[in-house]
Amino acid sequence: MDTETLKALALPTPALILDADNIIRALHTLADLRQQSGCKVLYSVKALPLSTVLATAKPLVDGFSVSSLFEARLAREILGDTGSVHLTTPGVKLGELAELDQLCSHISFNSLTQYHRFSGLAHAEAGLRINPKLSLVADERYNPCRKQSKLGASIDEVWQSPVPALGLLRGLHVHTHFAGKNYDPLLQTVEKIETYFKDRLPSIDWLNLGGGYLFNEIQDAQPFVLLVKHLADHYGLTVYIEPGKAVVGKAGYLFASVIDLFTSDGKTIAVLDTSVNHQPEVFEYQTPPELREHDPAGAYSAQLVGSTCLAGDIFGDYRFAKPLRLGDQVVFGNIGAYSLVKANRFNGYNLPDIYLHRDGRVQRIKQYSYQEFRQQWWAEGTF
Ligand SMILES: Cc1ncc(COP(=O)(O)O)c(C=O)c1O
Questions:
Q1: What is d(CA 56, CA 51) in angstroms, rounded to the nearest whole number?
Q2: Which domains does the chain carry?
């Protein structure tokens, strides 16, 4: 997407611009992978649950993967009676199970206790999320296989469970990685599962390999294609993947304007009309987001900060070819996934408007208003 041309439009900021062409390209790449390998593709709603994205994805995927009752309701609203809805979450509650069961075609229980309590009550195909105890991610904050992980039943415990105790089990779910750019960790994961469950795999129907890979950035699809074919040929398994970031990550841009400039202890501070609360992972992980204007060799530097009262509301230190001026627009890239869905209105700062960019045209598809802020915080009663 040509961000310079979009800047020339001087859209009101902050604005989240979604590049529809990029999302469609990503979905087509996944559809090709599905065609080549025979796997089934679910879009992971948690990355960006925007209805426009779900409706665009619907004809190109086999369904959606969800993490909660609300996501399941939204997924079904878009899909109607067609397509699969797969749920996995540590947070299944007895009071929600009946509705979840109606909405979801597959439920992968997160622990053996959850499985034993709930699988007999559900009609959805029962699966079990297993934790293969393979730490493939160096950063513990992203690592589903960290020590004492809450994500999935330990592969050793499941292996020791007598088969009748898992009698209703139709599938296994595994998710071990984050933003993977090759398939080695996936091959290792499946190898470990096969070592443990070679004899039991033929008695289940499906294996959900989760998300965590940038499928459309991995040039050599062969290892994945061969893996899926092997699982189908040897064990009769249907293989699912549930990418989120691979579908929407690269498609999201946040446009913001410089609304104040000053120096603090010798450093140029540029205040933007946005906040790290519009991209909470910046603060969570303390990683400066990708900035289009950043020029490592640029002669000018500035710290980009957000508008809220949080002292650490800082995007990072960047370099520029020209000095920043009041009113300049800057563009953060690669923020389509896990930004807007985690965003909040701390300090009452409104969320960015959302625009769709398609075939060189831009259309505003969502504008958050004071009414939504008021509705969130207006409660009954006084004391
Ligand atoms: C169980 C599960 N499936 C799928 C995903 C989507 O992963 P990604 O967006 O990295 O593809 C996640 C992400 O946290 C997940 O936890």
A1: 8
A2: 3-18+249-374 (2.40.37.10), 38-243 (3.20.20.10)
